[in-house]
Design a protein that fits this description.
Blueprint lengths: L1 E9 L2 E9 L4 E5 L6 H9 L6 E6 L2 E5 L4 E2 L7 E4 L11 H10 L9 H7 L15 H14 L4 E5 L7 H17 L4 E5 L2 H7 L2 E6 L2 E7 H6 L4 H4 L5 E12 L4 E6 L2 E6 L8 E7 L3 E4 L10 E12 L4 E7 L4 E7 H7 L6 E6 L38
Parallel strand pairs: 3-9, 3-10, 7-8, 8-9
Antiparallel strand pairs: 1-2, 1-4, 4-5, 5-6, 10-11, 12-13, 12-15, 13-14, 16-20, 17-18, 17-20, 18-19
Helix pairs in contact: 2-4, 4-5
Bound molecules: adenosine-5'-triphosphate (ATP).
């Protein structure tokens, strides 16, 4: 585990961190600009020294105020990827990668060939940084950080300087590295779309404090976090697998623990793991099974919690069986339908709300590979397929 329990006053920022993170997979640090995310990972890297507390990564104590332990930056075995690639302009791509390898410490577990393959760098090795696109430069920077054989990879908004197409190009590489190399990644971002695609664990940072920490889908599903995530973007995250495609209608059916979802066609084989983010504002509720509506995704459940917001809206959390789905509806509709905790309802999600741009489908980095994808049982009472 990674134990981060420390504080530091930085100008007006009172950084107070208290979280335990898993020692594998991607832990995202999410929060608004100025929340303290960079300061937090800089303390882990040894660039910022805490005033008190403790930082431990696995068995290694990086910082412990009480015992006076404060490992120098070089001794921490950290890989760091910044917003800008910071490559050496006079070195080729291969030269930049070799620089990482030369500075490696400890056992070499990350090999040159696997880094080149996973990050798609083979055809770039002889090129100079000025000759690369922004996305390619970031892939080289990630490769260089990995070849240092880090015990922890820190990534501070690594896509922030890229335009949308370059972001889309680099994201699958980051997903893949988290799956292929068994090292923890701390990933700083203020983009919920990126976080949803990449993270296993989510930490919300607000005004210098770590205000929520837990499994991504759990933290995303809690209405109290909506103001921190952004009211427009807040919603639920469902881990699914591809069931089948309908080529005539260009649709794909996904399966998850509580039923199925039909979405615009996605180019993945049946069995492939996929993560779907469903915004609360895209979910409607009905008291009986809607028969004559165009919406194809209809899932039964029970109201679990109703959280009225200031203004016209209420957040309704619906228990689908083993997962929850959040709906944002008006308080007026809530009253008109007489919704209470326990009320049976049908949730409805338009397929067109689940396109890859607005939602972000993703191969899940840490789930089973397509060949091993679990054959999820159907919940009794769940519809045989999205109808
Ligand atoms: N050494 C310092 N002295 C004074 N103030 C500092 C120092 N370091 C950081 N701060 C302040 O702390 C606040 C948080 O900065 P930080 O970069 O950690 O936030 P962030 O969440 O990463 O934001 P962004 O996404 O914009 O990078 C900022 O207001 C910054 O000015």
């Amino acid at each position: 585990m990674i134990e981060l329990n420390f504080g530091r006053k930085l100008g007006a920022l009172d950084l107070q961190v208290d979280v335990t993170l898993p020692s594998r997979g991607v832990s995202a640090l999410f929060g608004r600009s100025g929340a303290g995310k960079s300061s937090l990972i800089n303390a882990v890297a040894g660039i910022v020294r805490p005033d008190h507390g403790r930082i431990r990564v696995g068995e290694r104590v990086f910082y412990d105020h009480d015992s006076g332990t404060d490992l120098p930056i070089e001794a921490r075995g950290i890989g760091y990827v910044f917003q800008d690639a910071r490559l050496f302009p006079h070195l080729s791509v291969a030269g930049n990668l070799r620089y990482g390898l030369k500075r490696a410490r400890g056992t070499h577990t990350v090999g040159w060939d696997s880094v080149v393959e996973v990050l798609g760098l083979d055809h770039l090795l002889d090129r100079r940084p000025w000759n690369l696109s922004g996305g390619e430069r970031q892939r080289v920077a990630i490769g260089r950080a990995l070849l240092r054989q880090p015990s922890l990879l820190l990534m501070d908004e690594p896509l922030a300087s890229l335009d949308a197409p370059r972001k889309a190009e680099v994201l699958p590489y980051i997903e893949r590295l988290a799956r292929e190399f068994a090292l923890p990644v701390l990933y700083v971002s203020h983009s919920i779309e990126e976080v949803t695609r990449l993270a296993d664990h989510l930490v919300i940072v607000s005004e210098g404090r770590t205000v929520a920490s837990g499994e991504l889908s759990d933290i995303m599903s809690r209405p109290e976090h909506a103001p921190l995530i952004g009211r427009y973007e807040a919603g639920s995250v469902l881990d699914c697998t591809v069931l089948q495609h309908n080529d005539d209608y260009a649709l794909t059916t996904l399966r998850f623990a509580d039923g199925q979802l039909r979405v615009p066609r996605i180019d993945l084989d049946p069995g492939a793991p996929v993560r779907v983010r469903i915004r609360a504002r895209d979910v409607a509720l009905a008291l009986s099974r809607p028969m004559d509506v165009s919406i194809v995704n209809k899932l039964p459940g029970r109201v679990q919690q109703i959280t009225p917001r200031d203004g016209p809206y209420a957040d309704v959390t619906v228990d689908l069986g083993s997962r929850t789905l959040r709906a944002l509806i008006t308080r007026e509709s809530c009253d008109r339908l007489g919704l209470q905790p326990g009320t049976p309802v049908w949730t409805m999600v338009k397929s067109v709300a689940l396109d890859s741009r607005s939602v972000g489908f993703s191969r899940r980095p840490r789930s089973a590979s397509p060949a091993q994808a679990p054959d999820l049982p159907q919940k009794p009472g769940a519809p045989a397929e999205a109808d």
